[in-house]
Amino acid sequence: MLLTTVDPVEVGRGHYTHIKELVEGLERRGVAVTMLFGYMGNPQIHCTGGFIDTGARLIRGDRLEYKIKDFINQYLAICNINSYVRRFGKDYHLIYGRDWILGTLGNRFDAPKISEFNGVTSHLRTYKHVGILDRIYLTLLKNREKRAVRDSSLVLCVSESIRNHLGQAICPGHEHKMRVIDNGVNLDYFQFDTSKFSADRVKICFIGSFSYWHGIEYIVPVLEPILKNHKAVDLVFIGSGPNLDMVRTGLKDHYASGRVRFTGRIPIEEAAKKLSACHVGFSPHKPGVLGAPLKIREYCAGGLALVVSGISGTEFIKKNDLGIVVAPGDIRGFQRAFECLLKDRVGLMEKGRNARRYAEHHLSWHNSVEKVYDACKEMLKSS
Known about the structure:
There is one protein chain. With 383 residues, this protein is α/β, with parallel strands linked by helices. It folds into two domains: 2-184 and 364-382, Rossmann fold (3-Layer(aba) Sandwich); 187-362, Glycogen Phosphorylase B (Rossmann fold). It contains 13 helices and 13 strands. Strands 3-2-1-4-5-6-7 form a seven-stranded parallel sheet, with helices on both faces. It has a six-stranded parallel sheet with strand order 10-9-8-11-12-13, with helices on both faces. The two termini are 13 Å apart.
């Protein structure tokens, strides 16, 4: 089986992790993958067919000059993708695209197409200031998402909420071709050691690409009072992104004490090691976010108790006693959740153990990739 996977832009940490695990998991099952990807630098991803850089270099910011540059770079990346697929698409049995990207290809190719929606980009509203360029961009996104659903043989969604939104708001009438396959995590990266709970200090972790929809503006108002009131608490921030400076500036008074640490963008294996040494994972997503946030699954794999926004798809956390779910944007609610966990170290440890156990039984990448592989085989048979 030959497959080319295409990705539209330079991606965040979670997005990159997802692609790496998916591609390498398919390769281990005998699928020869060629990647058309927009990731800056040398991605540590093994694929038989090689890595083809589409040249996407996004800045992601609210200033008009950034938006114009991103708009042009994304357009050029799409042109490169279309050019490659026009020339070599016939050599592949399947074309597998992320999010809206296959909506730019049309029906010019005979190979079956699978679109995977890890999020609904138009729903995220990354650009907060809606000017004329934003409106054009959002209109194009919605049209691309609609065409991607319409022109694909199969649409894979990482959550039920994404499936519902695509079927109701983006492209009604195509629900029959949509299938939900949850996000997963590579458990081999995360070494869970219960001895960390006997330490005197408690580490709170945030991992991510510091994007708008992650609720970055809540981090400082929530966590600075926790630092002031609890001298045995440290903060660990893993990753980098457009809103990182907002957090750095807000917590600068605590640098001298060494209680706030920023790792920047680091390899997955190193990130997993640092995350696993922490006790509580924070996921303050903004209201209305669709999907299955990878950071929540990584916190579970590392055995961290959770404090998360109650967006769709987080119901399993409360049901399985993995942590505390708070209404999105409720700063006082987040603070009360941390206070509750810090006062009950035994309960904190139990929630961490429950989280790791849940990850082992329900969140393994092995299971997710196996379902994607079966979907690929199904497409080949039906074609």
